[in-house]
Amino acid sequence: MDLINETRLWSTINDLAAITIEDQPWTRRSFTAKYNEGREWLMKQMRESGLEVEVDEGSNVIGRLIGTEPNLPSIVIGSHTDTVPNGGRFDGIAGVLAGLEIVRALKENNIPVKHTIEVVDFTAEEPSEYGLSTVGSRAWSGNLTEEMLSYTNSEGQSLGDAISYAGGKPNDIKNCEKDKGSIALYLELHIEQGPVLLRKNANLGVVTGIVGIQRYKISVDGLPNHSGTTPMDMRNDALTAASEMTLALESVANGKFDQPVVGTVGVFNNFPNASNVVPGRVEFIVEIRSISEEAIDAVADEFLSKVYVIASKRDVKVETENVSRSGAIVISDKIKQLLIESCSSITDKVIQLPSGAGHDANQMSLLAPVGMVFIPCKDGRSHCPEEWAEKEDLYLGAKALLNAVLAFSKQEQ
Ligand code: GLV
Ligand code: MN
Ligand code: MN
Predict the structure, then answer these.
(1) What is the pTM of this model?
(2) Average per-residue pLDDT for the chain
(3) What is the atom index within ligand 1 of the atom nearest the CA of 125?
(4) In this predicted model, which residue has the larger pLDDT, 198 or 411?
(5) How many angstroms is it from 316 CA to the middle of ligand 3?
């Protein structure tokens, strides 16, 4: 029986994707009015589907289908509805709306499931304007500290205030922390965000592990001065120093490690950013990712030591701040097997692959067994307006997750 409604899934994805900043598609940054609008739309869909809806202290949106044995730990299907600036139409919302489609299918076909199923839109999975990502799933895992709640955006507002704006209660954030064992299984459907499924001509990918992510904020203070009158050998230029640090990251991450590592500077702010002023200050964010924790640490150590050498050579001050770390995870054999079977019952084009992108699953792995299924994205592109997934692949992905929920709930006591 075909439980997943392919057309409905596709139209909900298009409807939510269309809630975007109009002159900057497809953008729904966390903690903005557009983000709240998208979540209002989502909650309406959840209510109309007969789910219990809650916004918790971490401003996570939860839609609950109560199981026939409500005392069992729940099955959570989640992802996020925020986007990167100029982001895509599928990153995040595919997972949330596949979850919604799964509970709709179960409900309208009167298929009883023992476990309560929670469809969750986790708050701010992408790096927010406050420097932190996976905010909502951190609140669940207990990794959202007081210090993080006091991180500020460029206007000086705190992350705590932003969570209130999104409907959460930052002062009571501990109330939404989950006990280990309170969640039986966490599942997430996502576009791959890379080229591997396409290259291998696969429809579905079972994720074997997810990279860890280390982020630092580096602030370089030089001496702002007149660009015309300050001789080249009398400058303390923060921008040239920060540029050399950025190149050092590239060269360190290019080294040989037990597993591949990537290092990126994606945020780079120059002050005062005027054509006739020798730059006085630069702030930039460094991100290091690998499936190997040891490799992340090795790159971080070598990079930070180079930063201090460069700062001293160029006579600028440098401060390094550890913004966040999310641990790399390995998916258990049991959950991989569950997903391989549920995917293979639908298509024979299934592969296994690691994820170079971070996900709410990283935080959820601290609480529960987690599993992820990937679908292909066009040209392997993501985090850009061209990001695209096919209707048929979304359908297959949702179907695979539904099969996994049914098989898991049947086998678990
Ligand atoms: C999320 O998209 C991430 O990998 O940063
Ligand atoms: Mn993303
Ligand atoms: Mn995502």
Answers:
(1) 0.95
(2) 97
(3) 1
(4) 198
(5) 37
